[in-house]
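Progress note, sequence design subtask.
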């Protein structure tokens, strides 16, 4: 029936027709109206046709209608991102939103096109809601419901949700006023009518660390517990003693070892290196997680839903149970382990010349630690850790040699090296913050990063050359409008941006601008604006360049313990190596790669959001004790409502524009606030005072401890002459 409807509305002679008319043309006289309406609704939800405001049916393609995802703002207007790739966002005016809320899938009609600004559209139908519940602080309503039940209200914590929910507790829930709760939405808000809901979870006192922490995990869908069946299967798999019975190549005699952080528990990658004439054979040995996580098993289904391990300030929420992630799949020193080994052939200039992937049995010689290896690199034989790593022979110096070659190659191909700072939050035994410092990266960290990059690129090429499925990691070229804004900003800083006028952009163009900025001492600020201008990396079943790395084909192969796309790629490789790729299985694997790519991209965004929110929570907890105190800071962001300042410990706060002495306006071209001759711009050093800390919103508000004196632009001399002449005439 769906095909019949599509065939009719796609015919050249078809004109938009009311629903009853379409039914009559296809099924006149037959009693199929319910089935017809269901088919029509499915096609509309699939985005294959539209039903206009006047009830007429027409094809979506080629019309002024489109389907997209609605994003709200605190100022009542919104934006819609079309589902069709490559189409820019549409602006939705406040009076054209039609009760849409954050995340809704909506049908829109284009109002106008404006080359200078965002295209404008209106929401004409809400196809589906993605928001099922909200989290906020519970307040009591003075009135009661129809059955005498106490009514409560909740205003969502998220500023994206600008509505209030009137709610009652679910059975067995006894919340206290002032607690943070989750409310399941039963009726969505409409103009002048509040949403209705049911309280389904009580997190505790709204301003406590525990309530806010748990709510963040809950809101982002972070699964923190494994069910009994998953744990049972993991324990059984962990009892499987590694050997060569499944046709693995035994390479335990090779010098293989791991290098990770001191507190790492899931050691899923090890490295080896041999000379190959005047080149190298880099061995990147990755735990063969796919051997233990069988396709379609309870463990696999759970890993698919989680998508990634999530790393918080005080703990890790793993993708796999500890029996696997910290046990049989962890490449612990002195223990035989199953691995997938990528042997990457690299010439003396750092070019990848070939790749061979094998199922292997390995044994790590040393549990390397970044800080220790950095000490060895710096001090050589005088390092206190030199003896520990002496069992590796000349492997470590040879690796340092190759790392330098690969790093130079990375610079030559234009890979972007953004100057960013990460916070390392120190906590006590009660998981409360006791300090915040900047995270440092040494040569050991960069060495492993370069080796993993080489392996990921080599494996992506290996699979692509065989025309086999793969979950690629792609990074699209930045959009023109964002680049024009970045170009103007960099030009105003005095940087040479002439290369960005080319029709085809290349990462080396941006790398050169970053190099100039670093020399001028403004590398961090330029990196920040460039990062905002770039597209977000994602997963895809189709090969496409990774713009930021300057690599044509790239995948994630090196972390199957903590990322599902790596596990998916391992599963595909394992099927290839055992000869289990025929026509039908190849098609199945291609479909699997597509689903894994979509799901993994979604889960990655959830994990990033949760990690950022928890970090912001801990920064607020730490800065509460400093309310009223003054600090040196740097302007890290500027908007039309104020500016953000970052302290030396990476904590960031907002200074409202209303707190500035004078009438300041936002200059979009220079990312600055301007008042006469005074201005505040990115990178300015300022002195700030901590005014307040909001744990619920996870925001710090600041003020300027030292305001700039008012300076006005002097009027021309003839202005005063003419003014005095006017007085005499009067």
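Output:
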């Amino acid at each position: 029936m769906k095909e019949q409807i599509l065939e009719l509305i796609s015919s050249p002679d078809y004109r938009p027709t009311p629903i009853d008319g379409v039914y009559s043309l296809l099924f006149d006289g037959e009693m199929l109206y319910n089935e017809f309406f269901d088919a029509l609704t499915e096609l509309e939800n699939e985005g294959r046709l539209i039903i206009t405001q006047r009830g007429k049916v027409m094809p979506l393609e080629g019309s002024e209608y489109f389907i997209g995802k609605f994003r709200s703002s605190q100022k009542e207007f919104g934006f819609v991102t079309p589902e069709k790739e490559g189409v820019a966002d549409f602006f939705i005016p406040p009076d054209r939103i039609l009760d849409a809320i954050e995340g809704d899938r909506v049908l829109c009609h284009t109002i106008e096109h404006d080359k200078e600004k965002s295209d404008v559209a209106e929401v004409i139908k809400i196809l589906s809601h993605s928001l099922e519940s909200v989290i906020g602080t519970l307040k009591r309503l003075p009135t009661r419901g129809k059955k005498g039940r106490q009514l409560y209200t909740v205003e969502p914590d998220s500023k994206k949700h600008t509505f209030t929910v009137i709610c009652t507790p679910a059975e067995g829930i006894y919340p206290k006023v002032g607690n943070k709760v989750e409310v399941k939405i039963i009726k969505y808000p409409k103009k002048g009518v509040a949403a209705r809901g049911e309280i389904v979870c009580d997190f505790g006192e709204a301003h406590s660390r525990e309530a806010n922490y748990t709510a963040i995990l809950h809101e982002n869908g972070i699964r923190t517990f494994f069910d009994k069946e998953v744990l049972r299967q993991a324990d059984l798999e962990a009892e499987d003693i590694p050997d060569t019975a499944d046709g693995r190549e035994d390479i335990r005699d090779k010098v293989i070892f791991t290098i990770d952080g001191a507190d790492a528990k899931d050691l899923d990658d090890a490295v080896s290196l041999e000379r190959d004439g005047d080149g190298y054979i880099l061995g990147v040995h990755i735990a063969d997680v796919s051997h233990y996580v069988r396709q379609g098993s309870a463990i696999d289904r759970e890993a698919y839903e989680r998508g990634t391990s999530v790393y918080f300030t005080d703990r890790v929420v793993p993708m796999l149970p500890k029996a696997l992630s910290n046990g049989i799949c962890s490449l612990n020193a002195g223990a035989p382990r199953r691995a997938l080994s990528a042997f990457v052939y690299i010439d003396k200039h750092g070019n990848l010349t070939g790749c061979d992937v094998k199922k292997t049995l390995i044994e790590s010689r040393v549990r390397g630690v970044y800080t220790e290896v950095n000490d060895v690199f710096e001090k050589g034989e005088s390092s206190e850790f030199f003896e520990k790593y002496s069992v590796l022979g000349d492997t470590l110096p040879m690796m340092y040699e190759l790392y330098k070659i690969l790093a130079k190659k990375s610079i030559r191909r234009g890979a972007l090296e953004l100057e960013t700072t990460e916070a390392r939050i120190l906590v006590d035994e009660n998981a409360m913050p006791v300090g915040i410092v900047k995270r440092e990266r040494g040569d050991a960290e960069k060495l492993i990063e370069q080796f993993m990059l080489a392996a990921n690129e080599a494996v992506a090429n290996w699979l692509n050359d065989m025309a086999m499925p793969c979950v690629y990691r792609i990074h699209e070229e930045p959009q023109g409008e964002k680049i024009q804004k970045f170009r103007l900003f960099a030009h105003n800083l005095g940087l040479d941006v002439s290369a960005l006028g080319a029709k085809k952009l290349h990462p080396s163009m941006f790398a050169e601008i970053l190099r100039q900025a670093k020399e001028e001492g403004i590398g961090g600020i330029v990196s920040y604006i460039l990062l905002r201008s770039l597209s977000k990396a994602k997963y895809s079943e189709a090969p496409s360049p990774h713009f930021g790395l300057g690599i044509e084909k790239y995948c994630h192969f090196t972390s199957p313990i903590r990322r599902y796309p790596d596990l998916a790629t391992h599963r595909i490789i394992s099927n290839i190596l055992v000869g289990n790729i025929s026509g039908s299985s190849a098609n199945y694997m291609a479909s699997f790669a597509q689903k894994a790519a979509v799901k993994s991209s979604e889960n990655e965004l959830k994990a990033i959001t949760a990690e950022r929110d928890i970090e912001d929570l801990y920064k607020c907890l730490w800065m509460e004790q400093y309310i009223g105190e003054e600090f040196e800071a740097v302007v890290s962001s500027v908007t039309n409502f104020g500016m953000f300042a970052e302290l030396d410990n990476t904590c960031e706060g907002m200074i409202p524009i209303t707190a500035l002495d004078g009438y300041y306006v936002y200059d979009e071209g220079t990312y600055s606030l301007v008042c006469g001759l005074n201005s505040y711009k990115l990178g300015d050093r300022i002195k700030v005072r901590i005014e307040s800390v909001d744990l619920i919103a996870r925001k710090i508000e600041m003020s300027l401890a030292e305001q700039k004196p008012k300076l006005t632009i002097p009027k021309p001399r003839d202005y005063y002459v003419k003014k005095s002449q006017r007085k005499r005439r009067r």
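Residues 447 and 534 are 25 Å apart (CA to CA). Work on this subtask will continue into the next period as scheduled.
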